[in-house]
């Protein structure tokens, strides 16, 4: 019995056949026998045993982190790199629920979160530099300051059981509404953690283990009183001077998006229909959202919602000239640069959606999509 069955996609199975590699996929009856019973994610949601999840991709303008902020974050022993500092700002925006305006939005600030980093050194640095980075950002953009106070701590596999449990108890604490506890780690908290009140998991870097992602995502789906949704937060930096489709093409720093979404397959038996909904231009805002974070708070953080986008035909949707308008000029005078940034984030959002559909579906899944339109409508109702 397992909550995270290891099942390989048809694409990986074909690759394994070509290389004479043997895969032990748990849907192979010759190896594991017949499936006795499956308790699906959708049934657990319906019976309110699990909380629904939402994936938020934070497209953070790298220009937010100017030379002044970067210099102030240096010390003689360590320095946060630009990409990590950018992600901290994005995580702050998401946890504080800044710019949530719609009446259907959950606008309460998040109070408990796990942050997964690429290595122990980075996890430790982020825990020590998080609040300093936020303070420097507030100096640059005073309007962004909120009443939410962050407490950040680090944990890794070298911690003994007593210290580990102490930190988990700290994470579980019933804090006041203006406090948020964040525990940074690499992988030691991907399993064996029971914090039902956890609001979010944040993946700051791509992961090496698919199973680690599946288990980490499962942490945020636990049901708790007054918990409406578990959030999966993916902060990524966007380079303003590069067309979006070029920035997204084979760029390893965006791998975390495809990895996390593909890992959702192991939990979500309606995952295929949700990908079809993206292709059919359905409104899946309650499941997936791209939020742009810019220097100018008056731009409303440029939240771009799937139901406002055209996602037809993966090869055509990306557009031949996407990003060209935004990249013709840089941050300039009289607000022109800010307007161009506004346009760029919109184009980035449009460019990433069809790539998600491409990265997260099997090639043969679209041959009979028309016969499943009813399923899409039913699952989104």
UniProtKB/TrEMBL annotation:
SUPFAM superfamilies cross-referenced by the UniProt entry: P-loop containing nucleoside triphosphate hydrolases
A GO cellular-component term linked to this record: cytosol
SMART domains: HELICc
Domain of life, source organism: Bacteria
Record-annotated Helicase C-terminal domain positions: 102-279
UniProt-listed InterPro entries: Helicase_C-like, Helicase_Restrict-Modif_Enz, P-loop_NTPase
Alphabetical list of Pfam families matching this protein: Helicase_C
Gene3D superfamilies according to UniProt: P-loop containing nucleotide triphosphate hydrolases
PANTHER family, A to Z: ATP-DEPENDENT HELICASE IRC3-RELATED (PTHR47396:SF1), TYPE I RESTRICTION ENZYME ECOKI R PROTEIN (PTHR47396)
The protein's name in its UniProt record: Helicase C-terminal domain-containing protein
Biological classification of the source: Bacteria, Pseudomonadati, Pseudomonadota, Alphaproteobacteria, Hyphomicrobiales
């Amino acid at each position: 019995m397992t909550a995270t069955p290891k099942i390989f996609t048809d694409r990986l199975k074909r690759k394994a056949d070509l290389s004479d590699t043997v895969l032990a996929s748990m849907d192979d009856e010759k190896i594991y026998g017949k499936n006795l019973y499956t308790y699906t994610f959708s049934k657990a949601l319906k019976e309110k045993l699990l909380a629904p999840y939402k994936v938020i991709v934070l497209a953070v303008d790298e220009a937010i982190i100017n030379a002044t902020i970067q210099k102030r974050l240096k010390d003689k022993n360590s320095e946060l790199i630009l990409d990590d500092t950018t992600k901290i700002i994005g995580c702050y925006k998401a946890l504080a629920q800044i710019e949530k305006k719609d009446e259907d939005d959950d606008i309460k600030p998040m109070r408990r979160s796990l942050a997964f980093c690429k290595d122990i050194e980075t996890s430790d640095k982020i825990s020590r530099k998080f609040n300093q980075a936020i303070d420097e950002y507030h100096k640059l953009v005073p309007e962004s300051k909120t009443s939410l106070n962050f407490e950040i701590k680090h944990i890794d596999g070298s911690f003994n059981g007593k210290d580990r449990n102490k930190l988990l108890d700290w994470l579980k604490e019933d804090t006041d509404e203006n406090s948020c506890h964040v525990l940074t780690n690499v992988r030691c908290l991907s399993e064996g953690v029971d914090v039902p009140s956890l609001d979010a998991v944040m993946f700051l870097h791509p992961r090496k283990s698919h199973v680690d992602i599946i288990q980490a995502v499962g942490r945020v789906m636990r049901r708790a009183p007054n918990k409406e949704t578990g959030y999966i937060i993916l902060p990524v930096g966007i380079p303003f001077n590069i067309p979006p489709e070029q920035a997204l093409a084979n760029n390893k720093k965006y791998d975390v998006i495809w990895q996390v979404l593909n890992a959702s397959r192991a939990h979500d038996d309606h995952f295929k229909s949700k990908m079809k909904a993206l292709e059919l231009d359905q409104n899946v805002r309650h499941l997936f959202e791209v939020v742009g974070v810019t220097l100018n708070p008056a731009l409303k953080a440029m939240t771009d919602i799937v139901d406002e986008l055209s996602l037809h035909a993966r090869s055509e949707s990306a557009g031949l000239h996407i990003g060209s308008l935004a990249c013709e000029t840089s941050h300039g005078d009289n607000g022109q640069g800010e307007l161009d940034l506004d346009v760029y984030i919109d184009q980035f959002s449009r460019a990433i959606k069809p790539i998600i559909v491409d990265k997260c579906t099997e090639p043969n899944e679209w041959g009979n999509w028309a016969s499943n339109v009813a399923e899409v409508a039913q699952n989104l109702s």
